[in-house]
């Protein structure tokens, strides 16, 4: 990619303060503060683990393969399991079983091209080697000697290493190399051990940790394709740990058994030394590891009982999302609804504005820069559920005045609203989800004009009528909703137990399932995205700027809104969202645009 200087030259622009519209990589002079500055990508300075979708079957002593935190494979494990599961970045799916169930085997390769090497089955160590082609396992050439608890490294099912391990009674220094058809003994490691971890390829690998009772090892050995060399030790000696990495110059070591017990420790290898970085959320040993130093998976393991926990590692240098100011609505309002495809395309409709109660039928459309008034709704109201897009949307329920709760539904075709089939149960303060005006879901809400009565009702829209379907597990009002009629997310709200709710539920087309809670309970929040990748933002009490990101299994706090508010509307995706309207101590017109990547200004110093 061309750099800034190649496109624009080397002239330095002058600005009184930060330069508006500065390009990434551009150097400029701030004449007010008398500093040279430049704009650069805003990225994380440290890596972190994050909980993701659990294995379908908890297991320890399993094998793993994969190249990132969104693409993984695990196989075998306790109790002599043959199960194989494949990971898509949010959930695991059972796929073809191993031919031989086992534990303590080696795993190498990718999600579609992997090896299961050796291991233990009842009463015996194994020399069996199985190759995975993306759909099934096939027995291929055996190891030259039976072994388990080895380290394994390799790029795919045609190229791998089996390193050290445990043939009874005392372990081995032997290393074998796989060429796609047979194993060949190559140069030995310097230290015999088992339950070690390894990563890399047949020409560039790293082996670390392990034990030979009663000794736990911190030893690290580097392979250059010809010989093993002892290099700097781990900071914490341990065995039954997992590893990830592409070569002998880049690795991640995590988990394991360390004195006095299960470890959550993660260490990062830069080619010369190990550095402790962020711990796993769940301390464990006998887990599977896969991926590279910037994008890895930790799966299963032992915490005293078998674990199904999966954690995703994202290394330093990941993009940091941020909110930026967009064009204001023409009319300040709160209790409004809306839909959006991304930060450049949105529709705002309904709501209320002061002084007093002014229920509105106003509709505005956003083009990425400014809002334009378009066709009004037929019925002015507030606390409406919204679903669809800027050209095909639904406005569902609501109230106007506060004592009259509506069952009215209106359909937007890109230019005008038309009344369509009513809800079966009139409601306000409900949430909606849906791809367009022919397929939607309405859930939660309030049926009482005075004292709130949170509802668990869910109704499905087929383009002509509503049908009651599976209820929410917890009735709520003023909750956030996003997704489609067959795959939706409901988050937060107000439920009287204990009032502000952190509850999150996902809809699979027939029923709701409770999943991990928001970090901060709140109501009146906005949402965008899908049921596996979403954002929620704003809310109360008090007025909040908090934004949380959902990865299909857990919530993580990310960059705040610029304006804290509740009763905020919005939509979009996790990489491009919009938040608009809301309430601070009055109705607001503020619009903010979310980008999954952002820039920062750095001052050059002497």
Count, helices: 1
Form type: elongated
- Name of the CATH first level of the largest domain: Mainly Beta
Q: How large is the radius of gyration?
A: 28 Å
Identify low-pLDDT runs: none
Question: Strand order of the main beta sheet, please?
Answer: 1-2-3-58
CATH architecture identity of the largest domain: 6 Propeller
Portion in beta strands: 35-45%
Question: Approximately how much helix is present in the residues?
Answer: under 10%
Whole-number tally of structural domains:
3
Biggest beta sheet summary: 4 strands, mixed
Category by helix and strand content: mainly beta
Can you tell me about this structure?
By secondary structure, this protein is mainly beta. The protein folds into 3 domains: 38 residues, no CATH class; 267 residues, Neuraminidase; 277 residues, Kelch-type beta propeller (Neuraminidase, 6 Propeller). It has 1 helix and 58 strands. The strands form 16 sheets. A 4-stranded mixed sheet has the order 1-2-3-58, with no helix packed on it. Strands 4-31-30-29 form a 4-stranded antiparallel sheet, with no helix packed on it. The longest helix has 5 residues. The radius of gyration is 28 Å and the shape is elongated. The relative contact order is 0.10.
